Amino acid sequence: MNGLIENILRGSVSSVMYVILLFTLTKARFGRKVTIVVAIFTFVINISSTLWFYVYGDLTGLSRFTILLFIVVGLALKPLTRQTFMQWCFTFLTTINIAMMIIILSFHLGRLFPLPQYANTIFRFLLYVLVIFLFQRYLLTFYQSIVKNWPMFSVLMIAIFLNLSYFFYATDDIKNTLAIYRTPLLLLVSLSVAAYGTLFYSLKKIITMYELETENLKIQKESGRLQEVTLQLEKYANYDTLTGLPNRRFFFDTLERIVAESERTARMFALLYIDLDGFKDINDNYGHEVGDSVLNSVGNRLLEHVRETDFVARLGGDEFAIIFRDIEEMKIAADIAGNIHSILQKPMHIGTMVCTVNSSIGIAVYPDTGKDGETLVRNADSAMYGIKRNGKGGFGIFDHSPIVQPPMD
Known about the structure:
70% helix; 409 residues; 5-stranded mixed beta sheet; two-stranded antiparallel sheet
């Protein structure tokens, strides 16, 4: 009778804890109630099989049947999980390997204590609890990564299974086999644990490195986005949103810088202050959309007819400015203004319409008509308004009689 109780206890612990371990390693499709039902069902089958094999005194057959029961339960559990078939097979094989290692360890640990048959059951239960705790607390995330990449690790799992299961099936007396092959079995368990430990440790390192690399890439990506935003904000701060030309703020910053450079190098430069004549009529007659297109065309023409070292800006409304660097004499500034004036008079084709504008251009030359940015702008603006007072359409240098350029036909 005592032997029957021992076998029932040991078999019940094995079957119930096996189900819990298997559910711990799998992604369950249903809730905890299903796990309890399956565990109870397995418990009932195990008690019935234990009684059957005990009556016939075939403990080796009971051991083999227990492994077979693990397989049957595993097959029955597959529909209850969210894993693919191959992922489930990998998890099932892992659970079988752990179960066989626990059987070997609990058997030999139990023999170190009085009443080894009961100590065996207690150690089996404690080992299952320890393994389940370790997986739930520390290893489950890593194990799930292993399952996702099961082809890389399947050979190792199969090798461990074949080595462990050999001692359970190639014997007629499982207790005698466990006792006789104590050293190779414990060595095999140690190697299996070391293999699993190395696998988890390596995977932890790999995941940590991957997470660091992912974090670095994320930081780089965020830095790139911040840089793009910074450049975008800088563009909004320094460039006109309509024409894409430098705006008033950028113009004055650049003008002060060029003044400082010209002061060091004793070089001349010319500032052209341009106001479009007749632009208001275009807006009134054709609408602001056409007016915006005209402003874009003016900006493009100015850019096409200056050097790379020169600077073109839109100051606002229909006012533009150009800084021509490194001129040798004032006459060159007048020639440049005359060329710009002629270019702006050419017809502009905006859709099906043809628009024309005139321009009044005031010129200030550093250092002859101003030695600082504020003075140069004021003088160029004054020269430009002098042109407008004289009938619009032309160009003039500050402190000189305006040179009026007649409109081109």
